[in-house]
Design goal:
The chain has 7 helices and 7 strands; from the N terminus they run H-H-E-E-H-E-E-H-E-E-H-E-H-H. By secondary structure, the chain is of the alpha+beta class. A hairpin with a 5-residue loop joins strand 1 (about 70-75) and strand 2 (about 80-85). Bound molecules: iron/sulfur cluster (2 copies).
């Protein structure tokens, strides 16, 4: 029946309309939803109604599993030197569906033999489709999906090793649950290795 369908549709619209203002009233006197806390609430499952944010001044927080163009994880030693986890094994480049990863493996200057270290690492961010397969397949937790989605540019965006590199602390800050799981697994592996060596 057309009449019932129209009424049902109007009812849904009216509910969303009213809920939008109910949330405003619930938050009255507290920080408005324009604050980071308010935006996080309205973007969560608890949020009701419809809301907009004044982007780029306001941003909706992204969930931990949100993924954008990958980055390379590095550790820093006491001198501040970067040590990339990447061993230039090439697995990520092989599994990347649009083939937008290029890696040049380093070599030992004395022998000329390849060593497990990337001399160069490029990702064409214009081609990357943010699928996350590179991060899924990397056996060394060396490449991870980023949360930074503000990459719009008038030119071609190709990231080199320097631009792709981000410290472990950054990874732990954007993906705390994943990082904790991986750190625990790594610690268990190390403990098992040490026990075997005894
Ligand atoms: S990022 Fe991971 S999968 Fe890709 S080359 Fe480096 S170690 Fe291999
Ligand atoms: S996220 Fe997907 S498309 Fe982007 S570099 Fe990784 S595998 Fe390739």
């Amino acid at each position: 029946m057309y009449g019932k369908g129209i009424l049902k549709g109007l009812g849904v619209s009216a509910r969303h309309f009213i809920e939008t203002y109910l949330d405003d009233i619930r938050w009255l006197g507290r920080k408005r939803y324009g604050s980071p806390e308010g935006i996080a609430h309205r973007a969560s499952k608890k949020g009701r109604g419809i809301f907009t944010v004044q982007y780029p001044e306001e941003k909706v927080p992204v969930p931990e599993e949100f993924r954008f163009v990958p980055f390379l994880v590095y550790e820093s030693n006491s001198n501040g030197d970067k040590s990339y986890r990447c061993t230039s094994c090439g697995i990520c480049a092989k599994v990347c569906p649009p083939q937008c990863i290029w890696i040049v493996r380093n070599s030992d200057p004395a022998t000329g033999r390849p060593i497990p270290d990337p001399a160069e690492f490029y990702i064409d961010a214009d081609i990357c489709m943010n699928c996350g397969l590179c991060a899924e397949y990397c056996p060394f937790d060396a490449i991870k999906m980023d949360h930074n989605y503000e990459l719009a540019s008038y030119g071609r965006v190709i990231f080199d090793k320097e631009k792709l590199g981000k410290p472990v602390a950054y990874y732990e800050s954007i993906r705390p649950a994943n990082a904790a799981k991986e750190n625990a697994a790594r610690a268990a592996k190390e403990a098992a290795r040490a026990a075997r060596a005894d």
